[in-house]
Amino acid sequence: MLQIRLHGRGGQGVVTAAEMLTLAAFYEGHHAQAFPSFGSERTGAPVVAYARIDDKEIRTHEPISKPGVVLVQDKTLLGSVDVFGGLDPNGFAIINSKDDPEIVVPELCKFLPKGHVFTVPATDFAMQKIGKPLPGAPMLSALAAVTDILKLESVQKAFQERYPGKVGDANAETAALAYNYIKGV
Amino acid sequence: MLKQIEGSLGVAEAVALCRPGVVCAYPISPQTHIVENVGKFVKTGTLKDCDFLNVESEFSAMSVAIGSSAGGARTYTATASQGLLFMVEGIYSASGLGLPIVMTVASRAIGGPINIWNDHSDSLSQRDSGWLQLFCESNQDAVDTHIMAFKIAETVGLPVMVCMDGFVLTHAFERLDIPSQEVVDKFLKEYEPNEYLNTSEPISMGAMVGPEAFTEVRILQQRKMARALKVIEDVTKEYRELTGSKSGGLLDCYNCENADLKLIILGSSVGTAKDEIDRLKKEGINVGIISLKSFRPFPYAKLAEAIGDTKQVICLERAFSFGGRGIICPEVKRAMEGKNCDIKTVVAGLGGRAIYGTTINGIVKNALDGKFTEEFTFFDVDASVLNSYTQKTEGVSFPNGPICQSQIDNSVNM
Description:
The complex is a heterodimer.
Chain A: E1 2-9, H1 14-27, E2 31-36, E3 46-54, E4 69-72, E5 92-96, H2 101-104, H3 106-111, E6 117-120, H4 122-129, H5 136-147, H6 152-162, H7 166-183
Parallel strand pairs in A: 1-4, 4-5, 5-6
Antiparallel strand pairs in A: 1-3, 2-3
Helix pairs in contact in A: 1-5, 1-6, 4-5, 4-7, 5-6, 5-7, 6-7
Chain B: E1 2-6, H1 7-17, E2 22-25, H2 32-44, E3 51-54, H3 58-70, E4 75-79, H4 81-86, H5 88-96, E5 102-107, H6 121-125, E6 132-135, H7 139-156, E7 160-165, E8 173-177, H8 181-187, H9 214-243, E9 251-254, E10 261-265, H10 269-282, E11 287-292, E12 294-296, H11 300-307, E13 312-317, H12 329-335, E14 342-347, H13 357-368, E15 376-378, H14 383-394, E16 403-404, H15 405-411
Parallel strand pairs in B: 2-3, 2-4, 4-5, 5-7, 6-7, 10-11, 10-13, 13-14, 14-15
Antiparallel strand pairs in B: 1-8, 6-12, 9-11, 15-16
Helix pairs in contact in B: 1-2, 1-7, 3-5, 7-9, 10-13, 11-12
């Protein structure tokens, strides 16, 4: 079972991103579960959402304290929230930033194996295509590129089905930018 | 049909498949998404021939539900926490009148202090309300139980509360198998009340009953509850055969063969516990789980059978009775009267404190090591929080770890 914890701020679509992640996993025949941390639904406040992906029924409903992957949608959380708490020593981290991982999270780069920490300019990509700072889709496609647990197309389909039309398409284009960024295409 | 959706939407779809004639509700977290979605179905025409009523309070919601159900319409509402309490006068009337209303309780703690998170203090506060109370361990269970609830309610002639853990289930986005309209139509026929308020053939309902017959009326209600035990089983069997579902029932056993210890759990912690019990099994520790689905009527005989000759039972309780002890445990003791079985309450998961696999592991290890020496123990206590108050005000401090009743009693007799 892959357990993913998503950190961001209220208004950035953190909870939606977790849901879209499981929708993409669902399209690929996986069992998946997403849920928010409750009680902090205020714009700008730190928000945590959780997702699990497995090939069998997911029965547990406990919060994820030992994630295999951490996604940080807002790098201003670094230093104020223990976003990497409990992260698997062989896990992965993806941070929304245009700077290199060694600059953004030097400690984490020493803690995790080489090539397990990634940065992606998700907000910049979102501004280019969506015109709003909504980094959810590019963060998920970065996750897909890093772990290969999902196809880019599934992430795109999730946003396009949930938000048919322009919004979904813009998210899909943003997702492609981030996917190719990680894959180095 | 398999869907990846929020639990609340799954329940809304299940309710819509049951073709209610009236849905009324007042929003309160964490129930809101359910009725919002039902409202959308009515507005878009997905759910036809249904009146959706926005009311100004939960008291009105229950009043409308009583009126519409008495008028012969299949009726649904949903609430939680303080909203449930605001309904209470009507809740007792609904059961006394024998109205088969179905209501979701998206279980949540009761304030004060205000707390919006999940535990069972709201639903269990209505233990004596005369409603059936069915608990759901997963969102799939919730979807299926709502569909069964209408049939159970209408067969028995009593209202049903479907209790699902607020947020933990209502806000979880999961894979759900939603039955087709065709299947639900086959399972649940159009509601045909024996009697209902009808201006062309007037009757009166809910007349005053004095001392000469009140006891007998109560016995009739208790009789309906007795009948409900079998109806729940029959309806579950029929639904499972039709859909292949594993949901519903009076209770469900997991790993109960030759278990050294059995945990009785209500609600969403059952799934978390199942995973932990599988891990414990690899350590050679054999623990069974009894997921208690029907709290009212309480399945005494069925539970005694499920416990069997197991000598130790822990009731994991997410609410308790102030000045008393656990709420589930006394019922289990009653079921096991005269049998050699040690039954205790362990309280955990109050007001949204998460129940982890490690919580279950700790409860099991403490139980098997004989560390629960009393009937009533608070398990997942943060002594530092407690001491930050008691040390300052009274110079009293509690040690780290679980706190049992005698520690509380002794702390006030110092």
